[in-house]
Specification:
The structure is a single chain. The protein has 224 residues and is α+β, with helices and mostly antiparallel strands. Helices cover 69% and strands 8% of the residues. Strands 2-1-3-4 form a 4-stranded mixed sheet, sandwiched between helices. The longest helix is centred in the last third of the chain and has 80 residues. The chain is rod-shaped, with a radius of gyration of 60 Å. The protein starts with a strand and ends with a helix.
């Protein structure tokens, strides 16, 4: 396949001349085989170029300016698209050629392919993992939660049955506490009564002593 570059060798535009020189120099640097087709001196070349540039790629006036690049009969692009491809290290792809091994474009393509393959493998691994997760679980394992809930229910029932016994025990303790309280009150009353008796006996003894002393004093006075 031969790359065709349509250019105007006798163009009076400095901008056009510079663009043509950039394209040709870059192709020579890449050692890409190409052919220069002059549209200034060859009417057939000029008519062929104008007819084969896609309508959507033509300027508003319908007349495409050089340089225009083709791969045999296939349109590649103009200077602007060529420059963009050069900036993106995609000139070989722009020209419709295979990038030689070791070139930046070939290495970039290998990296992209590697990323795509890794992404595909990762997706397959995720699908396999999802398939493993969907393996049917034995019925015994599936009912594990149900058994757990049943055991919890039995535990709750046992607790409920135990509650009345605890309540009865609590009531019994309260009854004993009341009896103990009544006994303590009785004991206190008995102690108070005993103390009152002792006080009364002591008072009576004191009164008797005082009475005897008074009688003794009276007798002595009478005897005098």
């Amino acid at each position: 396949m031969v790359i065709k570059v349509f250019l105007a060798t006798s163009s009076g535009s400095t901008a056009i001349k510079k663009k043509q020189q950039d394209v040709v120099a870059f192709l020579e640097a890449l050692k890409v085989e190409y052919a220069q087709l002059d549209i200034a001196c060859n009417e057939q070349n000029r008519m062929w170029m104008r007819q084969n540039v896609p309508e959507e790629k033509k300027p508003s006036n319908g007349i495409p300016l050089p340089p225009q690049i083709f791969n045999e009969e296939s349109y590649c692009g103009d200077y602007e698209t060529f420059f963009d491809a050069k900036e993106d290290n995609a000139v070989y792809s722009f020209l419709g050629l295979a990038a030689p091994p070791g070139s930046k474009e070939a290495m970039q393509a290998d990296e992209e392919q590697h990323i795509v393959e890794n992404g595909t493998h990762a997706d397959e691994s995720n699908e396999e993992g999802a398939a493993d997760d969907s393996i049917e679980v034995p019925e015994g394992d599936r009912n594990g939660d149900a058994h757990g809930e049943a055991e919890e229910g039995e535990g709750v029932e046992a607790d409920e049955l135990a509650e009345p016994e605890e309540n009865e025990a609590t009531e019994g303790d309260e009854g004993h506490a009341e009896e103990d309280g009544e006994q303590e009150e009785e004991d206190l009353q008995s102690e108070e009564e005993e103390e009152l008796r002792q006080l009364e006996d002591e008072e009576e003894a004191d009164v008797e002593e005082e009475g005897e002393e008074f009688l003794e004093e009276t007798r002595e006075e009478v005897a005098e």
